[in-house]
Amino acid sequence: MVFPKKEFNKISCKDADVSKAHLVDMFEKIIDEDFNIHQMMLVHEGSKVFDVSADGFEEKKENVYSVSKSFTSIAIGILIDQKILSLDDYVLFYFSDELKDYHKGYEKLKLRHLLTMTVGQRNDRFNGLTPQHNPVEIFFKTELEDEPGQVFMYSNYASYMLSAIVTKVTNMTLNEFLNKHVYSVIGLEGVEWPEFSGYSLGCTGLKLSVKDMARFGILLLNDGLWADKQIVSKDYLDEATKKQVDTSKDKFKINRYGYGYQFWINEFGDYKAAGLYNQLIIINKKDKIVFSCTAYEERPVTSLFSEYILPGFDAGWKETDLTVRDYLKKFKDNMISLIKEEEKERKQ
User: Fold this and answer.
1) Are 17 and 317 in contact (CB under 8 A)?
2) Nearest alpha carbon to residue 4 among 180, 179, 175, 185
3) Within 10 Å of residue 107's Cβ, how many Cβ atoms?
4) pTM (2 d.p.)
């Protein structure tokens, strides 16, 4: 495994043993069908096979939406490794000093239930919060319609509460904690994460470039080890990135393959960190690859990975006159009009 320093090591398709024809076909599909992808990067064993960005998005840090949740999970994992937290800790314990009252049932809520989004709430009230609200109080006064641990319900609030717990036990915001234990080790700089009521959002808002995401992906692929430093334990990651809860009834087909500790299980195996509009970090252990992407696209970009990149590695390198470099330029040219349309849409 190569651990990138300031720049990524670059390897050819031949060195990565991936079919260039499959990658060319993928770029043709992206261009022909106008996929709005801002940044995209493929890494094999820590080395870059390709990276491409729309004009103006080179190295740009964007809101990666719910990819943020997976970073929250790693902070919790580090604190579990340090014996500061436990999966079976009762959540109420960390907020008892500021709560006058809470709804019946929260005395059973554990840390693992926040991680797996099995709180028991049927409504995610996080999006309705305003600066005038007390988010902790509202969380515990939201009625539990299911016993904690029984029913999956995707919840931004659960991730926010995890962020609050990190601050409770470290006296640092989640972003400050990750800067000390993760960002500074793997080479992420200037990472911003908005706060609400004194806590990093935890669920969304983290700003990263596609290269930042790839670095995080390499850490995950290598079982939490970066060079000679174990940042988060393999034991925690093994649990965090396997199916902990059934999601087969989710309204989106792509989300029906299970959920771990703030990670989604892929329909084609292994796992991903995923956010709105196809912000993605896909991990594939068999071929030792990381695929990261920022986008403004509603169609599933995971299909590009499963239909082209995985088969490309299965097929392996074959001599061809095709060149990926030409398609990287075509990608950039094609994105100009798509970005202009996106800017108009976002202003509406």
Assistant:
1) yes
2) 185
3) 12
4) 0.97
